[in-house]
Amino acid sequence: MRYMKNPQLHFGEVNIADIHIDARSRDDVPAILKGLQYIYTHDAARKKVFSTLEAIIDPSVSTEVGRPGMELWKIFVLATVKLGLNCDFDRLQELANQHNTLRQMLGHSGWEDTTAYKLQTIIDNVSALKPSVLAEINQVIVESGHEVAKKKPGETLRTRCDSFVVETDVHYPTDINLLWDAMRKIIELTGKACESENLNGWRQYRFNQKQLKKRYRKAQKIKHSTAKDEKKKALRCEEVHQTYRTYLFEAERLIEKIKTTLKALNDPGNVFQAEQIVHYIQHAERQIDQIDRRVLKGEVISHNEKVFSIFEEHTEWVCKGKAGVPVELGVRVSILEDQYQFVLHHRIMWKETDDKVAVPIIEAAKQRYPLINQCSFDKGYYSKDNVIELNKHLDQVILPKKGRCNKDEKAWQESDIFGEARRRHSGVEACINNLEIRGLNRCRSYGRDGFERHVALSIVATNLHRIGLLLQRKELARLRRHERRQQNPRLAA
Hints:
By secondary structure, the chain is an alpha/beta fold. Helix content is about 60%, strand content about 10%.
């Protein structure tokens, strides 16, 4: 069973509204906690967040019996702190067990409560949050942030949209190292499964791994000849081919042996292990085929056939043409920021380019924020159809045209409204930098679901941090006015 938050205070516990957070601190933790405190102490926002968080509770599980799980408020606090600091779970565990202000926010008393969080408990509970739940919570946070920023009722939202690459936690891919990744997992999983089931044939599976790795290293280090002598080039080419053939032959031999072993593992108790092994065998066979075609037959492998990680299969090879960054390995993400520097909406661009998401991201954002009437884009989002569709949803579409403009287009792009929006558009780069500080420089969560959760959590943490900063600035200004009055009695009078 799981509770939202126990309303009954324990002896020594501080009410969240009474937690003192240093307004002078420039660290990220106080700003995040200040944002969380604001959400909790405002009834409307708290009720919306709590009712949304309840969606992660499995309705099929009885809430009356069983061991009590971590409170949903604690899960939310730990998740936002992790992404707000862009830290790993080890540091989050240390903060949850030792940081006094954070423990007060989690509902622990200072001197009597000795509750300690275990690492796996934090990992399992933070991973329970769903991207759809986080999107609903983000809307509540943005609306609360607009109140803090003194947004006038009925004021329209002027937004700016841009995309960037969130890198996945992968190494630089080559066809031979992807084959090695697949083979080492196949051998390791098969060897351990045979050990647990007392099956023969894989007692020396670690030795087999080392022998295959030697062949991989040799293929990795061998270079094609740059000599001008045709005989030397031909000899070197044959040596390269022979090295690759040896590597591929050993991989194929092990795969055939493993397929024979799988028949013995194909019982109900080992279905999951067998499925994992078969999955990696498919990766290995694809890489063997591509290496054979590329190196031995001289074919060019098309981009659509390539996989850039066997562990993070959603990883894409992205070339955005940035100076000093020839390629990025990850997934594109488009964000929509308003004039108060809150991220209203985002879209993960699975196999999509900028021009394909301009209309969908605005349509989705307008459903949550009907007051959006302007949005600025880069040229990468431009197409004739996009301009027509966006004008149906927005009063002002700031989208520079690729190529020459006709008379009307030129007049619009030379107008004061267009020019002012274009000057302000570069501010979205600061938002992207802020998101990268909050965890979107590299996603270390596993799988496609983990990637979606990581991106959504980072945006929630960024918006909470923004609320905290605004509140800290107001509090700091008040403290400075108070100090000036104390120093100068005439001001107080």
